Structures are given as C-alpha cells and as structure tokens.
Batch of 2 targets.
Target 1
Amino acid sequence: MKHVTHPTSLAAAAAALLLGLLPGTALAQFDAGSNGSYGPLNVTENTTLDLPPDGVFHCTTINVSAGRTLRFNRNPLNTPVVLLAQGDVTISGTIDVSGSNPSGAIPGVGGPGGFDGGWGGFGPSEPEYRGGDGYGPGRGLNADGQRSAAYATGAGNNDRTYGNVLIVPLIGGSGSAGSNGNPGRGGGGGGGAILIASNTRITVNGQINATGGVVVGFGSGGSGGAIRLVAPTGGGNGNLNAPGLAGGGNGRIRIDTTDPLAFRNLNLSGSVTRGTRMFALPPGPQPSLHIVSVAGQAIAVDAAAGVDFELPAGSPATQTVVLRGQGFIGEVPIRLVVTPEHSASTTYDLTLNGSANPPEVSAQITLPEGQPTRIHAWTR
C-alpha cells in the first residue's frame, strides 16, 4: 500500500517547535490560516462530509448543533481532518473521528488519519487461519500481550509508542490485531486525527470523539486518536475523548491558547498537554513520503494511497520497494512495514537522503506468495 506520510519526522518537528522556530505567543493576533473559501460550516442535521484531498476545510465559522453529529469520509490519502475558522467555533453536538469496530473477520477501519485493524483468520489451516497484525506505527501484533495497539501510551506488552506532545505531525491511532479462527475476529481501527483552529474562540459544550475501535469479547482494541485545539481563547464544559478502549493505548490531546483560563472546564480523556504554541499548520510546503515502486511495478507519486499488493504466483519472495521523499532536507529516518493479511508483519528501518536528486531510498523486502499484503511507510 502506498502511503503518504505526515508532514515531517516526529523528532525533527518536536525539536523545531520546542526551539521556538514556529510562531509563538508574541503575535498580537492569531491567524488560523483559513481563507474562508468553504464559508460557514453549520451542522443542523447528522452529517457526514467527504474530506477534500488535503483534508482542510477553510471555514468562516463552525457550528455543530446540540444533538447532531458531524463525521467524515476518509479521502484517498487518508489525511487527518483540519477545520480552520476565521470566526467562532461552537460545538454543542458531536464531532466524531473514531475508529470502527470489526465486522466478523473484516477489520475495523481507522478514523481519518488513523490506521485499520488487522484481518481475522478465515480458513481451516495456516496461513489463512491466523489473524493478521494491525496497521500503523503502534500496531497490535497477533501475539500474547501484543494484540492491542499503542499510541501515546503502551498497550499491554506493546511498547510501540509514537508521536510527540505537540501532535506535529498530526497523526491518528493504530489498529489492533485480528484473532485466529475460521472465522476469527478482525482488529479494531485506530482513532482518527483532527485539528480545529480559530482566529477568535472555540467553545465545546458537546464532545469531540477520537476513540479506538474494539474487538468485542476478545479484550483488544485500536489506540485512541488525536485531538488538537488552537485558539486565543475558548471554553465550555464538554468532552474531548481520545482513549484506547478494551486495552488499547491512549491517544493524544493538545490544547494551545494564550488565555490561561480557557478550556479549564473541559473533560479530557487521553494523554493531555497544554501550551501556547499558536500555529495551526507548520509554515511552508509540507514534506511527504511516497512508495513509488513495488516489485518493479511503478506507482504514481500522486496516486491514491491504499493500494494493497499481491505477489504474482511463481515470483521470487525477495522484491524491491522504492520510496521517494519530497520537501525533506538532510537525512530522514524511515520505517517501512510490510503486513500480509494472515502472516506476521516485518519492519525495515531505512534512511532517506532528502538532499539527493532524486531523494529516493530502496529496500529489499520479503513478500508472501499469493497473499494480499499492505505496505506502509512513515518517518520515524
């Protein structure tokens, strides 16, 4: 599967922000970055919106009425949800980017910007009998104590935590593993990721949900997702929910504001930090990473992410994957994960020279014959 990574490496992004390289509280007036082209987003009925290609809604104002729920369909690149507003944001109802529960052996889907669960077993013998590993940096593995997914916190013996307290890049939760059987149960999807920023204020009297999906009766779940709010001030007594359920790791919540009393009455569930880093999206072109070739088959840089790969019968198991970066400078650590539907996933750590021409790195990977396989890559 070709996957476009999030804006930059986790360590580099955190270091840049902590050193104050991005706008801070010295600015007299905060600009969320909305050009207002979407107009007002006014949710008065239960609504599911298609995410634009970049995931960004440029609103004038945002209002979600009490008793109403706003959800989003994932776009081809599975970007997070970004809601930018020139004026007030008022959430009296619900915004939901949660991961879903599995349906039988079919895995739960990650929320926008999150990752899917693994496939449940679906055959009388190996390998189809085996449940597949989950997807994402904190994915659950089909092994004792490893089935639930991690994110800000670990999950059982799964210590594959990732991300940073600033949630830059904005990234969602990971999926839990499927279980063995004929059929087994699929894994739960990871919670999605959402950023809401306003030039003026954000008021939450309803709730924003980015929970992980669960495998009912099997005690495993996807990790919670990510919720980030940025506004000069705000308030309300609502809920921000990004927990991992059924043993999944907690997701991340970040609130940035220049008002020390803002948002103090919100109820927060997840790993929470507060600050005064007053920016919505990092400035400048956003670096990205693309898988452009698998086993000699070219994949267009701008093609939709989410293409599963199946090795043709009779092909050698060892094949080459080529990754290409855009907008990176210097050496960038990359993690490539190969996840067959019913075999154990394998991880390859690489280094991309972002200053090369072209900025590409290749890896020799092992692919199972005759088994659908998904390939993910992201910066470490």
Target 2
Amino acid sequence: MNESKTTLYAIGLGPGADDLITLRALKILKEKVDVIVAPKASDNAKSLVLSILHKALPSLSESESKIEILELTFPMKQGPELLNSAWDEAFLKIKNKLENNLNVAFITEGDPAIYSTFAYILERVKKYIPNQRVEIVPAVTSFIAASALLNETLIEGEERLCVLPAHYGLEVLPRLLGDFDTIVLTKVFKVLDQLIIKLEKEQVLEKAVYVLKATMEGERICRDLKQLNIEEEKKNYFSMVIIYLRKRKGILSGDRSGQR
C-alpha cells in the first residue's frame, strides 16, 4: 500500500514557556502545515496549548493567516464510552482534513509521546489509515523542565528513573522507592494529602520537592511539602513531586529559597 501524500505531525510545544518550543517545531508549523489541531479539556474551555503557540507565532491570530485552527475536545473526566466517542469524533475530523490533501499538525503540551492526548489519535490512525504518513516532533517535558528549575540532574551513571501519574503510583510507591533512584510523580493535585502521608510514613518526605507550573506563569517550588496549603494546591493541575532518593548537594540544603 502506497504511503499517503499528506503528513500528520504530532508536535510537542514543551512545558509552557514559548521560548522552549524547538526550532524544528516552529519550522514545521510555519512552513509545512495547513491545519493545526489544538486539544482542549471541554467544549467551553480555552486550549492552553494553543495559547502557548500564539505567543510564539502571533501571526496565527491574524485574519490573513492561511493556517486553519481546529480546536477539538478531549474530555478529562468522563466514562469510557463518552471518552471513546470523543476520541473517535476528533479522529474523524482529522482524517477528513488529511483526505482533503491537507497537512495536519496536532499540537500538545510537553512531548507527544509522554502521557499525551495524541496517543488516542495515533492508535486510530494505525488502525484505520495505516498508510498515513506520521511524524512525531519531540519536545522538552515538564519533568525535565522542573529538574532544570531545581538546577539538578534527574539521574546519573547507572541510576534509574521512574515517571508516572501520582494517582496510579500511591499503592506501589513503597516498592518503587526501593527500585528507583529518582521518582517523578505527575499530576499530584488530586492526591497530594495522601502522598505526603505516604512519603512521611516511608521516611522520604525530606527528599521530595514540589514543583508547580514549571516554566509557566505562576511557577513555584516548595521543598517542604508539609508547608503546602493542600486545599489550594488541589486546584493546580500542573503539579508534580520529584523524589530524589540518593544524597545530593544543593537540592535541599537551603542554598535557595524554600519557595520560588
């Protein structure tokens, strides 16, 4: 079967700062695409990833821009049937653009290959239009950005790194603490109170650092998790905890302010 003439690009825009979008991503968006697909959490919500892109490419907002912007809803909270229905609907709209000989870019926060909404589209592309040409453009991830804010490396030498959403990781955390040298727990906002209790019980609370909105407006770092206002932090989706399990200089030594 011949490969398609059009390309579906999956383009990661990074953790939030528009100057962390890669040169390759910008080049493709400027020169090679006809349609930009921007996911959003609900029909009434604004697309955060689109707002990031507008800062980097303000020309997209101009009336003479030849690039079509297609905002599609990818619900965050629904049952499996409603979720699959939403993903199917989004896929069919993208498929229609590709069949009309248009190059499509699906933009995502972070990297398209890591906990990305693009995964649901790629699954359907492989199943229903297997000859479609797809190009994934990698990007800076939020946990890499967070570690950079801390002026720390995540892993060194033969050390092992674990990354997973916090609400999936609480039950297995005691085992993970023994198996890995650094653990990144993303989206901790829902389970932050339970996580703090668990870290304290496992005697590793002092090795954990809380990072909110890395590289975005409202960015904040807290090295003493017990000082956090739990109810306020539960409103913050872009939150993570990095647990550095080996002794390191600098990370908790007080050489920088407790919060930033």
